[in-house]
Design a protein that fits this description.
This protein is of the alpha/beta class. Helices cover 38% and strands 22% of the residues. The structure holds guanine and fe (iii) ion (FE). It is an enzyme of class 3 (hydrolase).
Length: 437
Amino acid sequence: TLLRGRTLSFLRWPESVDDHAAYAYEEDGAILVANGKIVASGPYAQVAARAGSSARVIDHRPHLLMPGFIDAHVHVPQMQIIASYGAELLDWLNTYTFPEESTFENAQHGRRISRLFLDEMIRHGTTTVAAYCSVHKQSAEAFFAEAYDRDMLVIAGKVMMDRNALEAVHDTPQSSYDDTKALIAAWHGKGRGLYAITPRFAITSTPEQMEMAQALAREHPDLHVQTHLSENHAEIAFTQQLYPWAKDYTHVYEHYGLMGSKTLLGHCIHLSEREADVLSDTGSVAVFCPTSNLFLGSGLFDYQRFRRREKPLRISTATDVGGGTNYSMLRTMDEAYKVIALQGEKLNPFQSFWQITRGNAEALSVVDRVGTLEAGTDADIVVLDSASTPSMRLRSERIKTLAEELFLMQTLGDDRTVKEVYVAGKPAKSDLVVSNS
Ligand code: GUN
Ligand code: FE
């Protein structure tokens, strides 16, 4: 299949809007797709010649084709508590989150929500997620099964949590180890699924469970580890109380051998210089969740400080639904822009779109598979319409450059901006059966 349209993909971080060598843009471009992979991309004439006259052409002109968006941190069992009023992190967890996650004991419920979750991701143009399931093994089984059926590249794990939550969402050090082992054996590398060892955060694990997470990470050094770090002041103080020997919050994860280039650390808002150095030295990834950080009043992630410091951090961006308030990576980057602006800095539109495609793929160590339009990678593609609403159409009339068009989509766009999504080369958004069941 030959997808025709304007094509945009990134080759590296764009230093400025004039850094044209950082991206590949074709006004009349095409992507040749076969067997779920990108065979070639570039100018239409060139790619069409390669495809031959028998190739089926899907003409998306004048829309923009880009790699599918990547969400680096999101909670599947929080779909029904998004938009829960009036709490900071620890109260929000106790009041809304833990009771809600307890309902995932029911495997049918887990399967239904996983289905609706991936539907919603697709509708918003997100083709890869790093996801937290509930404490229940069956919630992760349901999620991986659903992703497998759709041939989606997902990174996910059941949360390990054995204290400081509801009894109903506690596991034990041994059961968390056993369940994680069984899930790795069943789902890691099955289809496009990748398992992430997922201790929820330091507060909800005993030292015994942290040791189990350490054992798992040591036994599976190729796997991702995902957790939360330094989101909120009360959380940091409680962590310090639970681990009195620790130099700081990051030291807890360091101590249990959980830092590394496949480690994804949600939030990282209140890091000291020492902690930021540890993230940098270990190649661990700081995950910026702007809508969540604003909604829960957690603080402002210092993107530009982290990027520019002598020891820079690897950064990804994410929705953190249901602490986050929108499934869209466009809406997420709009809020990211504002969080960065509040700190007197800027993130230009090329940098934003780099971040939610190639940047997040690099941060998740999957850039050899997704996040670009390079030949040999998986054909996960979004089709974007920058005039998808009346207000966008009107604003479009004044637009002269690609940078302005991207910034318009980021600032006013949402699921309506996403006209089509291809997952492993197959139309996925137009294929959705719209239902609430
Ligand atoms: N810290 C521990 N668990 C969570 C969670 O579910 N959401 C957020 N935002 N922070 C957390
Ligand atoms: Fe989170």
